[in-house]
Amino acid sequence: MTLALDFISDQQTPTADRVTLFVDVILPLPLPRLYTYRVPFELNDRVVIGGRVIVQFGAKKTLSCIVAAVHEQAPKEYQAKYILEFIDDAPVVTQPQLKLFRWMAEYYLCTLGEVINAALPSALKLSSESRIQLHPAFERDTNEYPMTSQEDKILDALGALEDAKSLTFTEVGDLLGVASFHKVIKSLMHKEAIFLFEHTADKYSPKVLKKVRLHGRHLTESNLERLFEDLTSKPKQLDVLMKYLQRVPVYQDEHANHRGLEKAYLTSSPHLSPSAVNTLIKNGILEQFDQIVSRFPMDENPIAHIQFELSESQTAARDEIMTYFGEKDIVLLHGVTGSGKTEIYIDLIRQALDGGGQVLYLLPEIALTTQIVTRLLRVFGSRLGIYHSKFSDNERVEVWNGVLSGRFQVVIGVRSAVFLPFDNLGLLIVDEEHESSYKQYEPAPRYNAREVALMMGNFQGAKVLLGSATPAVETYYQAKQGRYGLVTLSKRFGEAGMPDIELIDTRKQREQKTMHNHFSADLLGEIERKLGAKEQVILFQNRRGYAPVVACQDCGWIPKCNNCAVSLSYHKHSHELRCHYCGYHESMVTKCPACGSRAVKTVGFGTEKIEDDLKIMLPQASVQRMDLDTTRAKNAYQQIISDFEKQVTNVLVGTQMVTKGLDFANVSLVGIINADSIIHYPDFRAHERAYQMFVQVSGRAGRKGKKGKVLIQTSDPTQVIFDKVIRNDYLEFYNYEIMQRQEHGYPPFMRIIKMTVKHMEQGLCEQAAIALTGELVDRLGRAAVLGPEAPYIFRIRNFYIQEITIKLDRAHTVLKHAKLMITEAMDAVKDQKEFRQARLVPDVDPM
């Protein structure tokens, strides 16, 4: 849609019997308040809360925004501008969503605009772009102004356009090959050769299939026979017609011809001529039409006949969950890996749907959706929607609209699925609830999807089921305190037993010279035995790339990132050094730039090197790697997992992705290559994460009657955490961890808010952090404020970093008051001229 920016002034003065409406809108910008706009009188009946409207913001910018409230109060501070256009006749954001978004903005110390910006798929957000078009009165032949070569180039381009008849500023820059072209635009406007306007376009476009059908006049038997006679001398066209009639039984099914056939089926058939198809359309024998179709082609009817029986222990757990739901809104299902939690989820989803409610099933990683979606589709068919970041904008809008319309009653998705427009939730399932992947780090809102799900359940009166083999310490504490129901599944499903776990002392093996690169003799021998038995292996290494460090053996030089305070990692496949924080990369060096030595070697190892070494040492193995580098493409996860399931590959090397919920029947061995790198990390959750990771990846070994084996390589097998992993003793681990948390004042006994100060100048970053600390101490007291201090990685993307930790009592009133004080402290620092370029980032409940 094209909008003149001076659309309405006061063209209609409201009379006494007219109601003048105003709307408060949420702009998708980090603004601390809502803005009020006036509704043109003739559009009063169209305004809906949760609908999108287009407004002018600033001098020329136009944006789409969400209507948050409708009222009759004009703003006192400024004169309200008119709404320019209504996009929706019905809400795209529901009332329960708006309530949730307001809570998120308040709880996570961000703006409502930031929440809306994160929540809405990009294709539902519209913004204007400046465009130029030939002036209607401009005649190039009779124009009296001389034109420069750049101006001629623009006019030539505009004159050659057939459809759009306009160019964006971006296209002008590309055309001229220069960054600064505004003087050229200004000159053409002065010469009245072009005019400038703002164009706002809806980014969502439905998927359209081009189809063909036989023209209605040929459907009678006599006319069809006559048509065959006419085409006897045109064999290529006759072949097309015969192919159409073979696929479309026009006489057996009276609606078949109306539905038609995809044009691509005819034009891409190897024995048919595409030009013959087009000739039949041109001559009116076939008629071409467009059909809007779903991007998720599934059976129109749910596949409800697929049934399965819960085991005795699963049935008991299901019944216990339902009993708890009678008195509590939240239940924790603590089930060991392979205990069959997914079957219980499916049974509970069925019950929720039978009760008329919607269901949201959250998973921490896109990798998990591949296997579980297949299982759920067999049960719920077209009622199931899928939502994750690898989907295109248009696909996400279709799921969004499908939830609004009721087409999708069950949605399985990653953390962003909490933003979908549910308004009748009956059940929320948060699988692997302990996972840090549920936490959003950048940009705001820095939310935890698990906590948002709990609040969604509260707002919509839905039940919430949290599931994990290794629950978060905070979650288990709430269950032990009786705030959540607690249901335990302590045995694996069927005949599968827990895997045998063994420790391998790599320090001793190095002394005995039995290590092969980074593989102990025990691990390498066990891999060979499993491959010989036609069984599969998963190897876990919590670092991607070929080598984390490259160093000169003579002078100690290490290549560093230009933008971050980290060393560059070597990636062999692309033969480059890469920063895992900002993406900076450069070619691998062969000669030290500091001393000139050629003794530049890689130090350490990542998944790429493990894969490489294994292919050399075990050439009979078919090895695949699953990490961030190999799964960037849209369907890469599915392909890797599919190949492993079909045993096309028999060794899967990966990072944390391989630890999360994957279920492979033929995996009998899991190897953890370097356990030490996971344990030794400066964070109060380091041991919790290590325990969870070891147990989760161990759980991939041994399913469906096969007893698995787990080998953990470590240079210090005496560490206490290994004993708890080997005995699979979560309760003992929890008791030790909760005692440490209470003693040192960490969650769940205290709330933590981490303040990060960023600035491109190191000195100003430190000064701003000191100033913010002072403001916080004045308001919250010295005991509550720790820092400031520089983190281990003190510069990322050219910004220096300082961190301040705030510890608060868990009481709601204390937390609410403290957040108000934190906001005041941030404002006080930002008001100081020297700190206006500083970024102050609050992170509530950091992970």
TrEMBL record:
Its EC number is 5.6.2.4. Binds 2 zinc ions per subunit. Residues 584-754 form the Helicase C-terminal domain. Zn(2+) 2 binds at residues 561, 564, 579, 582. The keyword DNA-binding applies. Keywords: ATP-binding, DNA replication, DNA-binding, Helicase, Hydrolase, Isomerase, Metal-binding, Nucleotide-binding, Primosome, Zinc. NCBIfam families: priA (TIGR00595). Component of the replication restart primosome. This is Replication restart protein PriA. It comes from Hymenobacter aranciens.
